[in-house]
Design brief:
- This protein is mainly β.
- The protein has three helices and 40 strands.
- Strands 1, 3, 5, 9 and 10 form a five-stranded mixed sheet that branches. Strands 2, 4, 6, 7 and 8 form a five-stranded antiparallel sheet that branches.
Length: 695
């Protein structure tokens, strides 16, 4: 029983009979108060028990300066009333009084003290339910938890773009080739801004010499002067030689010339690279040489990495800050030798171990753009080197991947399915000018590639992803060869895509325990007769993970699309934002503001989180959840989010938020992980608050 505060005794008249001076006012025997801490518009039951020393009848009168009183219930010596609180009061206010008066007109009063408007110690957050949240992105709600749930994102090799911001990473799976490679990427909008790409995704030829400007600048083929001149990509040409082809003047490409810069342009009889024409030999023009001689000064354009085209390097002094590329893996070598193809790689192969998905150089010594770091965060070749985080990619910003391949240039379209890249085509599709070089560039967008599809079939290749590739399987006639597998529910048989070693690698925890389903994977033919070089495989079973399979031979060769296999991953991230807590009414008294907030939470990560895992669970709270006007409230799109000092696991924080003058409370949590084995989960959130009244 809480006692009220006895305020006063009412005196009798000064002219009363002297005998009455001994009369006393009613005595307050006790008070009762069901709640002193009352939420906004909550109730408290108040009671008083009194007696009169003279034994006369008592009268009870309840009054309130704030809130509302229900009709009281009186007894001879008791009275009880229910008080409904306002939205808030100044601390320790005493808005309710009861006056007890006897038959002689003598009165005693008692006041009741309250704190109104929230309670830090209470939990106003109800058990989780979907209806409580105004925003749910990749988060699943149950009464006991909030769980990150990766959603499927449609993607194709021709258009790698996301509707929401993502953080991308690449993880090497398998390299199975005699060539060496560099894997990088570019932003399409930067190519557009530089004038390489037109509105319909076509490559432009602004100097009208028959060679797309992108291809021309990759190899610095434009002449230094004249109507077809273009700025040199780099500091200066290593081999300032030129040649005439047709009626146009071109520069000989340093990336296709030996250390002595000997002239390479020639005319010779070559097999026609057009589909079905490989047995026809025609006089063609060729520039460059295809077999490097091992001299470190040959086949170079003098950039930061001499064998990577300057345009594909990041913007650096060595390329006159004209580079547009970002280099994720400088080499993809993951084998038992310690050399790149004829030592052409941009960095040295440093390991002799068996393939394990870790590139044979210290990947972490370089940034995600391919620039040497001043300090290596993970010295030595370690398991962390199998993965490169590309970083955040803005929504709707398209990414184009490229593979630089170091391998001998060969032209045998009929027997081997190989051709030199074609720089310029005639109106009938015949290649008029070939490029022979040990430095080839392939793009994820098939129509941007320089080499012709010598087979010209549609699709360019197809596989059964759940079937392991075997050498006995003939991809051109899988139904009639051993080693093929039937697609479920059909009689169609296809060769497998990845070999046993790659499939075994994917099933390891480091790659998310991926078991590829037995599904048809096909490579669409390009729109302009160019050879596609990337297939992108995905499955709803493994959302936000795609396998990139590269074909590294000009013309397609064996078309295995498994020379370099990399896992592309959009690191799962999700957000849950609550609607305003319903404990705070939307028509809150404008004199009331939230003064303090308590946030307590319990969260965890699992089920398997090795030391290299990176997860995040970030909480925020705002007292500016809604914007209200004229009795109507709408969500505030740009509230001030405050981040409580919470530690992983179970923790609690109290924040003073009165300076914001907010009157609507909500919270959010952002969940993220870079390891599908290590998932964040919110188990519980408690929210307490206090209101105060503006002076």
């Amino acid at each position: 029983m809480a006692l009220g505060c006895l305020l006063s005794l009412a005196a009798t008249s000064a002219h009363a009979d002297p005998a009455s001076l001994a009369l006393l006012p009613p005595r307050i025997e006790s008070t009762a108060q069901s709640a002193e801490q009352v939420p906004s518009r909550g109730t408290s039951v108040l009671g008083v028990t009194a007696s009169d020393p003279q034994g006369s009848p008592l009268t009870f009168t309840w009054t309130s300066t704030e809130g509302a009183l229900a009709p009281p219930v009186h007894g001879a010596t008791t009275s009880e009333v229910t008080w409904t609180a306002p939205d808030c009061l100044p601390p320790d206010s005493a808005p309710v009084k009861v006056a007890v008066t006897n038959a002689l007109g003598l009165t005693s009063e008692v006041a009741f003290t309250f704190n109104v408007g929230g309670d830090l110690s209470l939990d106003y957050q109800k058990p989780f339910a979907v209806s409580q949240f105004s925003e749910l992105d990749s988060v699943t709600v149950s009464p006991t938890s909030l769980q990150l749930t990766a959603k499927s994102l449609p993607l194709s090799a021709e258009r790698i773009v996301f509707e929401q911001p993502v953080s991308l990473s690449l993880q090497l799976v398998r390299k199975n080739a005699g060539a060496s490679h560099t894997l990088g990427w570019m932003y399409r909008d930067e190519l557009v801004a530089r004038g390489y790409v037109g509105p319909n995704d076509e490559l432009l030829d602004t100097n009208s010499n028959g060679i797309a400007d992108l291809h021309e600048d990759l190899y610095n083929l434009a002449p230094p002067t004249g109507p077809q001149a273009r700025p040199y990509i780099g500091m200066w040409p290593r081999c300032p030689r030129s040649f005439l082809s047709g009626s146009f003047l071109y520069s000989e490409p340093g990336l296709a010339m030996n250390a002595a810069c000997q002239a390479t342009f020639r005319r010779e009889t070559l097999a026609d690279a057009r589909p079905g024409q490989g047995n026809v030999r025609l006089l063609a023009e060729v520039v460059g040489r295809g077999l490097p001689d091992g001299n470190p000064n040959g086949f170079s354009d003098l950039g930061r990495y001499p064998r990577i085209p300057n345009l594909l390097e990041p913007a650096l002094p060595e390329n006159n800050f004209l580079g547009l590329g970002r280099l994720a893996f400088l080499i993809t070598d993951d084998d038992e030798d310690a050399v790149t193809y004829t030592n052409m790689g941009p960095v040295q192969d440093m390991r002799l171990t068996a393939p394990d998905g870790i590139p044979d150089y210290d990947v972490s010594a370089y940034t995600a753009e391919g620039v040497l770091r001043p300090q290596n965060p993970d010295p030595g070749i370690t398991p962390r080197d199998r993965k490169v985080t590309l970083g955040p990619i803005d929504a709707h910003r398209e990414v184009v991947f490229f593979l630089v391949t170091y391998f001998e240039g060969i032209h045998e379209p009929l027997d081997e399915g190989l051709t030199f890249p074609c720089l310029r085509k005639a109106a009938n599709g015949r290649c008029e000018l070939f490029l022979q070089t040990p430095v080839s560039v392939f793009f994820s967008k098939a129509s941007w590639n320089m080499d012709m599809d010598v087979r010209g079939t549609s699709p360019a290749a197809e596989f059964n992803t759940g079937c392991a590739y075997r050498d006995t399987c003939n991809r051109a006639a899988p139904n009639n060869s051993g080693g093929s597998c039937a697609l479920p529910g059909t009689t169609q048989r296809l060769c497998g895509w990845l070999d046993v070693q790659a499939l075994t690698m994917l099933r390891q925890p480091e790659y998310g325990n991926i078991f590829l389903p037995p599904e048809r994977l096909f490579v669409p033919a390009s729109s302009n007769g160019a050879m596609p070089h990337l297939v992108l495989a995905s499955s709803p079973i493994y959302p936000q993970r795609w396998l990139m399979g590269w074909e590294d031979l000009n013309g397609g060769g064996d078309r295995d699309f498994a020379n370099v296999v990399v896992q592309l991953q959009a690191d799962p991230a999700g957000v849950a934002r609550t609607a305003p807590l319903d404990a705070l009414p939307p028509d809150l008294d404008p004199r009331c503001i939230i003064s303090r907030v308590r946030m307590a939470k319990s969260d965890s990560v699992g089920p398997y989180c090795p030391s290299a895992s990176e997860t995040s669970i970030n909480y925020a709270i705002t007292p500016e959840c809604s914007i209200c006007s004229g009795g109507t409230c709408v969500p505030n799109p740009t509230p001030t989010w405050l981040h409580p000092a919470l530690t992983p696991g179970v923790s609690e924080a109290v924040m003073n938020v009165g300076v914001f003058g907010g009157r609507s409370l909500c919270w959010r949590v952002a969940l993220g992980t870079r390891d599908f084995r290590c998932q964040p989960e919110v188990i519980n959130v408690d929210i307490g608050y206090e209101l105060t009244r503006l002076p």
